[in-house]
Every structure is written in structure tokens, then in C-alpha cells.
Write a structure and sequence with these properties.
The chain is α+β, with helices and mostly antiparallel strands. The protein has one domain (15-151): 3-Layer(aba) Sandwich (Glutaredoxin), CATH 3.40.30.10. It has helices at 47-58, 78-87, 101-104, 142-151; strands at 15-18, 24-27, 36-40, 60-61, 64-65, 70-75, 95-98, 109-110, 113-114, 116-121, 127-133. A five-stranded mixed β-sheet has the order 7-6-3-10-11. The two termini are 27 Å apart. 41% of the residues are buried.
């Protein structure tokens, strides 16, 4: 298990994920041949995290929606993934849940608060950009993520 935060240049570890319909999957590479933003929510009900998802829904990168290049990881089970997907239909096919993914990248709870953050993972499955925070207000930077996606 990862004990430190994943860093730029590290390989994204294998993540065990659950789709909203309960299907289990493993992610051990990028989704396609281009860089992907992997956003780790604090909880399925976090209002700040949902605000970040709305900014992802509105953003475009290189003439395509950012929502086409994102994976949203919610701590928990299919129930939590379903709750998030229902609030963000544009991202519905990009929302998964996991009971272990946050810890695999070093996002442990601190003072009872689940850490959240975002990674840009390049086509070689290496972290090109990492942005984390204990509080969700400091766990995502849209400009940094879109810049990293454009250059990864």
C-alpha cells in the first residue's frame, strides 16, 4: 500500500474500481492513448467537489470537452458512484467508486477528513501533474489540470 502521496513521474498504481451498475474493473493504464485527468472526490456529497465537477463539465481542452478525458473516483461503493453520476449526467460514464483507490495514491484521511485531489496521467501511465489537499477547496486547480493535459 502506498504510504506517501504519488508524485510527478510516478506510475499510477493499479486501481480497483466499481462502476455505478456494480461491475468491477481494474484500471492499470490510461483510458485511451491520451492523457487523462483522474479526480479523487472527498465524498459523494461534498459540495466543493461537486463544484469542481461542474467546472470540469464546462471546460474544454483542445477543442474537446474536458469531461471526455476525465475519470472521477468516489470513495465507497456503486451506491456512491450512482449518486455522483446522477448529479452530473455529462460525466456519468466517467464516474467510478473505490474503497482502496484513494489510499493507493496516498490520499489517506487526515483529522477525520478524506483527502482529495487530481492527477493528470500521461499516455505512458505516468503522473504528469498532481494536485492534492486536505480541504477540497485546495484539492483541484482547473487551469493547472488543463495545462498539464495539453502538454502531456
Amino acid at each position: 500500500m502506498t504510504t506517501n502521496l504519488i508524485a510527478v513521474g510516478d506510475v499510477l498504481p493499479t486501481l480497483d474500481l466499481t462502476l455505478p451498475d456494480g461491475t468491477l474493473m481494474t484500471r492499470n493504464g490510461t483510458a485511451g492513448a491520451r492523457a487523462t485527468l483522474v479526480y479523487f472526490m472527498r465524498t459523494s456529497s461534498c459540495p466543493v467537489c461537486h463544484g469542481h465537477l461542474r467546472s470540469i463539465e464546462r471546460a474544454s481542452v483542445a477543442d474537446a470537452p474536458l469531461s471526455d478525458r476525465v475519470l472521477i473516483v468516489v470513495p465507497g461503493t456503486a451506491k456512491e458512484a450512482t449518486a455522483v453520476a446522477s448529479r452530473h449526467p455529462q460525466l456519468a460514464g466517467r464516474v467510478v467508486a473505490s474503497t482502496t483507490a484513494h489510499a493507493r495514491v496516498g490520499l489517506f484521511s487526515s483529522a477525520g477528513i478524506q483527502r482529495s485531489g487530481a492527477l493528470v496521467v500521461d499516455a505512458d501511465n505516468r503522473v504528469a501533474q498532481a494536485h492534492f489537499g486536505i480541504l477540497p477547496t485546495s484539492s483541484f486547480d482547473l487551469k493547472a489540470a488543463t495545462t498539464a493535459l495539453a502538454s502531456a
